[in-house]
Amino acid sequence: MARKNTARKTLKLAPVLDLNEATALHEKLLALKGSSVEIDASAVERIGALCTQVLMAGARSWKEDQSSFTFSQVSDAFIKTTQLVGVDIAPLMAKET
Amino acid sequence: MDMNEIKEIFFQECEEQLAELESGLLKLNDGDRDPETVNAVFRAVHSIKGGAGAFGLDDLVSFAHVFETTLDCVRSNRLEPTQDVLKVMLRSADVLADLTNAARDGGSVDGARSRQLITELEALANGELPQPAAEAVKAAPVAEAPRPAVNEEGFQPVAFSFDEFEASEPPTIEPSTFEIVFKPKSELYSKGNDATLLLRDLSRLGEMSIHCDMDELPALDRMNPEAAYFSWKISLKTDKGEDAIRAVFEFAEWDCELDVALAGDASAGAGEELPMQPVPFDLSLLDEEAPAAVAEDEDQSAEQPRDLNDAAVSAAATASNILQMAQTAARAPAETAKTAGPAPVTAAQAAGQQGASAATPTIRVDLDRVDRLINLVGELVINQAMLSQSVIENDTNGTSSINMGLEELQQLTREIQDSVMAIRAQPVKPVFQRMSRIVREIADMTGKSVRLVTEGENTEVDKTVIDKLAEPLTHMIRNAVDHGLETPEKRVAAGKNPEGTVRLTAKHRSGRIVIELADDGAGINREKVRQKAIDNDLIAADANLSDEETDNLIFHAGFSTADKISDISGRGVGMDVVKRSIQALGGRINISSRPGQGSIFTMSLPLTLAVLDGMVVTVANQTLVVPLTAIVETLQPEASAIHSFGASQRLISIRNSFCPLVDVGRILNFRATQANPVEGVALLVESEGGGQRALMVDAIQGQRQVVIKSLEANYTHVPGIAAATILGDGRVALILDVDAIVAASRGQSLKPEMTLAAAG
Amino acid sequence: MKKRVLTVDDSRTIRNMLLVTLNNAGFETIQAEDGVEGLEVLESANPDVIVTDINMPRLDGFGFIEGVRKNDRYRAVPILVLTTESDAEKKNRARQAGATGWIVKPFDPTKLIDAIERVTA
């Protein structure tokens, strides 16, 4: 369902997004620059502040590039953690889901 | 596992640590300056303190704490471990051992002594030089040293109990709103912490709104994914107070900027300028993986630690867990999964041990289990012997395959027996280590300066032998220091080092353990010994004795060479007692002495008490076993060598000396009349006090190794009989107690009513 | 899934206390006896959190923590230091080595579990 647009890429987040994953996630996002991206956070069990930072930096960069950066699916843990740390992802939720 | 078991482990560990402590201190005393030696000593005391604290053993904790503090000074090179310093430390190690024993067995300790040492240790830690030992001892009773305030240095023992799971009630304060600014540094993340976790804990304190400041977040391609960019402004309404808030950040204190302030009453604080996002109360999902459910009720228990009882895993979960762990622990036995109760612990241990196997290839086994195995192997040996014998009796063809198989079985059985014995074999080290304390104490009491050198501490011998070794060894050490070594003045006068040396060595020699105790003292004063022996009617005034024979006179009962009985080795106990206890272990003891150069005591002991080399003999149709170690020689008496005197006493002349003849059958009441010596065999034995006796038996069947079976354990003590064994033909044979028989021959009769029972 | 705790302590007494406390609280416990062994079993233990002593033979707690922090896979694992020393110097050294937090011995079960909960998700 995420393949309506050929330029749109999907990034599936790992279940555990800790210190180690921050660098990996950073690299994955950088590699996707220029394309619209849809983040699948449905498998996320744990997300630390560092990965949240990377995602938010990504959202900003995409916005500057005027590309689309959305979350297609999110797990409960993902929603609750972002709420906890005061990061509002509602504006980034994919409209069609 | 419950607390008592852990406590038992603790005391076992204390013993090991105390041994470690002592050997480390002795190494330092010998000039070893390896930092690892100092560390090991420090760790030993530290470890005892740690465990003692957990069990609320306050005396032990406070002494260990002072000791540790002083050792820390050595460790950090603030205190030079001179001999004087080490003297204090060695004595402290002794007191620590006493305190440990008192904590375990409920005994009491010399309070004045430990207080004195606490004062001395504290003085050392404060950079004061130790007083000479003599003055220190005198100073002991003077001041009631202040009990060390345990809390002084922030160390507060808290009794450990598994029941104490309730958290202390946080002070209830009127709910107030705090404004918190939290800005983590990158270090916070690199140390495995996470702002998310801190915010989670914070949210549990009350109602929280949060604003995440992302201003510092750079563009994706310019960011360091592991650097901290976010900071937070939090508004928290809680009744737990500021301390509870700061407690959340306890671990993060150095790795973040934190500002906690009470919000202004006007509630027109800066918070309103920012879009604050309320944090939902139900965060349970974040705890999905937590082993215990958080009690997130409306009541004020949000901070309360999780109810650990809830963590009790359901039976089904446990079962699957065990299976899982059993798979992990490749070698975990299948039974583990079947056993119900302690299985999770066992499996977890197994898993842990599997990982640890490379480092520690040892296991701890109950001694009972080993003993049972040794007993069973003993039965196996007997059974094998019986089987062999009956095959030989029924099989005329000696080359049959059965015979060959039996030989192999015999070989295997012997190997199994040796291997099983090796399980119980332990190094003599712990006994040797105990001796160094004995040496210190006697050296202090006698004013002598002594150095104990030990060698071959890792020589192994059966645990049962080790356990019985300490007493005679202690006595011999006392004797060596008290009687063997001269005073420092005399030594200097003799051109010797004022410090005497006592050397304790152990080694294996032809299937036995040989322990030597050598001193570099004056040696045995043979003139004095000889005179004393004459005075005590031990020898004739004109007796012609070799030096060796003279030296061995000190093993005679009631013999003491010290001019006056001293408090140390006197005590009415002579070397005869030492000799007897060594012999009771199936051992022999010898002395050789060189005037002016010292004496060497040599003990030779069997490696195990479970088997014995014996001579199988017949007495009045009964089969008896005489321990081979007791037998000097065997001879066939000739009528001309037998001399009677008195009503029933007889002597046998052997190479121009007379030796009392002891009729074993008569003494054990196997027969009513005396046997004719010419028809039997005489076994020349050495017994208690070094005297020789000729034991009369009817015939010798042969020599063999027998498995010792305790009569006391299976029947009852029988006078004159040390134990029993089962021979290859299935007959029970009694093992003779040579000392008791010889004593009985001197008129100390065995209880007659018991003797028949013994024969039956 | 149970959380896995790796404990590193040379004292058999403390190891047993940790084992009982952690097992009672529903953790899976893996134990090592010193820093060297702790690093050796790190992979197989795959811990969610580590509890370590400071004074140990072969490799002390500081060295062990540094070792874990250098391990690419496990550098993010929270490490709690068990120590009788409550003085700032020890804590500081442990923190500099990369410790996440600390528990002052003699620990009581509540404090131990509480500290573990605080540093784990």
Separation, N- and C-terminal Cα atoms of chain A: 10 Å
What global shape of chain A is seen?
A: globular
Helical/strand content category of chain A:
alpha/beta
Strand order of the largest sheet of chain A: 1-3-5
Q: Helix coverage percent of residues of chain A?
A: 25-40%
CATH topology of the largest domain in chain B: Heat Shock Protein 90
User: What CATH architecture label of the largest domain in chain B applies?
Assistant: 2-Layer Sandwich
Q: Report the sheet with the most strands of chain B, covering strand number, pairing sense and barrel closure.
A: 6 strands, mixed
Based on the coordinates given, report the CATH architecture of chain A: 2-Layer Sandwich
Output the structural class of chain B: alpha+beta
Query: How many helical stretches of chain A?
Result: 3
Biggest interface, CB < 8 A: B-C, 69 and 62 residues
Report mean pLDDT of chain A, rounded to a whole number: 82
CATH topology of chain A, anyone?
A: Transcription Regulator spoIIAA
C-alpha Rg of chain A (nearest Å): 12 Å
Number of domains of chain A: 1
Rough outline of chain B: elongated
**What's the number of extended β-strand segments of chain A?**
5
Q: Which sequence of strands runs across the widest sheet of chain B?
A: 15-19-20-18-17-16
CATH superfamily of the largest domain in chain B: Histidine kinase-like ATPase, C-terminal domain
Content of β-strand of chain B: 15-25%
Modified residues (4-aspartylphosphate) (chain C): 53
Domain Response regulatory (chain C): 4-120
Keywords (chain C): Phosphoprotein
InterPro entries (chain C): Bact_response_regulator, CheY-like_superfamily, Sig_transdc_resp-reg_receiver
